[in-house]
Amino acid sequence: MSASADAGFLAGLNDPEGLNLGDIIVTVTFFTILMLLLKKFAWGPLMGIMDQRAQLIANEIEAAEQSRLETHKLLEEQRALLKEARDNAQSIVDNARKQGETQREELISAARAEVNRMKEAATLEIATEKEKAVAAVREEFVSLSIMAASKVLGKEISEEDNRALIEETIVKAGESR
């Protein structure tokens, strides 16, 4: 019975209308072997490559982030330097303006002092010239008075006495004014 049972079993497996159990077992066996081989030789290296690729992408993202942060930092430094340069430029302009104002004030003061000095010199010169003119007029007046007195008196008095007398008269006349 065992031979007929085996033959019946095998005949049932190869039945074209039923399930072909032999093909299923062989297919499952080969599929399992293929999966084990793929896991060992393809899946492991493939996963390693994928892990390497993921690591590379993560590194590139990190490098890009670092680059972005560094660029942002440099931008802030450049902005700070630009602000400092603007402040320095404004300071220089303000300083130059103050120096200009100071120099202008110094020039105005020097010009005013020079004008005052010139006015004082002119006033002094005018006073000196006035005194010279008054002295000249007195001399002329004294000479004319001596001649007039000589003619009136008819006699000649010493020029020294006459001059002293006339100057005394002029001084008294000046004091009474």
TrEMBL record:
Keyword terms, alphabetized: ATP synthesis, Cell membrane, CF(0), Coiled coil, Hydrogen ion transport, Ion transport, Membrane, Transmembrane, Transmembrane helix, Transport
Coiled-coil blocks: 72-99
Subcellular location: Cell membrane; Endomembrane system
Presence of keyword Cell membrane: yes
Matching InterPro entries: ATP_synth_B-like_membr_sf, ATP_synth_b/b'su_bac/chlpt, ATP_synth_F0_bsu_bac, ATP_synthase_B_chain
Family assignment from sequence similarity: Belongs to the ATPase B chain family.
Subunit structure: F-type ATPases have 2 components, F(1) - the catalytic core - and F(0) - the membrane proton channel. F(1) has five subunits: alpha(3), beta(3), gamma(1), delta(1), epsilon(1). F(0) has three main subunits: a(1), b(2) and c(10-14). The alpha and beta chains form an alternating ring which encloses part of the gamma chain. F(1) is attached to F(0) by a central stalk formed by the gamma and epsilon chains, while a peripheral stalk is formed by the delta and b chains.
Functional summary from the UniProt entry: F(1)F(0) ATP synthase produces ATP from ADP in the presence of a proton or sodium gradient. F-type ATPases consist of two structural domains, F(1) containing the extramembraneous catalytic core and F(0) containing the membrane proton channel, linked together by a central stalk and a peripheral stalk. During catalysis, ATP synthesis in the catalytic domain of F(1) is coupled via a rotary mechanism of the central stalk subunits to proton translocation. Component of the F(0) channel, it forms part of the peripheral stalk, linking F(1) to F(0).
Name by which UniProt lists this protein: ATP synthase subunit b
Species this chain originates from: Sporosarcina saromensis
